Amino acid sequence: MESITFEVATDEQKVQIHRIVEDATRKAIKVLGLGKPNAQRVIVNGDELANKIIDKIRELSTTDQFKDEEVESNYGYLSGYQPAVADLDRQIARLKELFPTLGDANLEFLELVKSGKVELPPNTEKWGVIPNWKKRPDLFDPIYNDGVQKVLNLIKQTRNGAFYNYREGQIGPNRLRQSKRSVEFWDKLIEAQNNPDILIVPFQFGLLYAGKSVRRAIEKFLAQEFGLGAFAVGCLLLTHEERLRHYDDLWIDCSGDEYDDPDSVVRFGLAPCFEFHGGLVKFASRFVDGARVRYGSASASLPQ
């Protein structure tokens, strides 16, 4: 699977879009001939209007590539995971409980987030914490795949054995790798937070892309957005054990990783995923072109 690289819109492009929206607003007011009560209703419902504008710009800015790989999905966060909860201190404490020698997050940035001075970026639902595995090879090994295996082992341990790995013994570097985009964005996060032991990451746990194939989700990513891989999603499951507890919970595509099936003509055409059935959390992989109602890609963004 080939990575997709995005460039941030230029200042000139941003100004042009701003003018288009302003011109459309002036045209709407003129054509509709709004009376004072009607105009006031628009003002009162300003947030709804703004959200509709955002949704339309998002729709128009997304390419048509893989657009047929979307299905309607009613699956969500059934087991009690609450995106709006601000609980960074709890998450950090849990990580340190699981990895006793793990150091701290960037405390200055942590306070900025907790105070609200740094807001959640678009396409995210919560602040999470993920170990900086590159800095701590003593904990996670210098190879990404070994770090993934350690996280999978911990999921099994913390779930009292209620875990199954369909890819047991099959996640070496020749089978599982991070996407180029994912590597680039993790490096940016690490640099921006001054290489701490714990990274503070704005993320969404899959709901935004429910029913979309992995590659369609990637196609819809915003400029500062990137897919989360098996290591990051696994760590978030360790700090949010309520996320996968029921068969009808939305299952999670790890769109920041690429997985290879040696029997396929397409190299690295799959992505890892976490599922829940038979009373077990299960680690598997599936083809990136499959749109299924039960799955949604987890992603993160660079803080603005």
Automatic annotation (TrEMBL):
Highest taxon of source: Bacteria
Organism of this sequence: Candidatus Zambryskibacteria bacterium RIFOXYC1_FULL_39_10
Protein name as catalogued: Uncharacterized protein
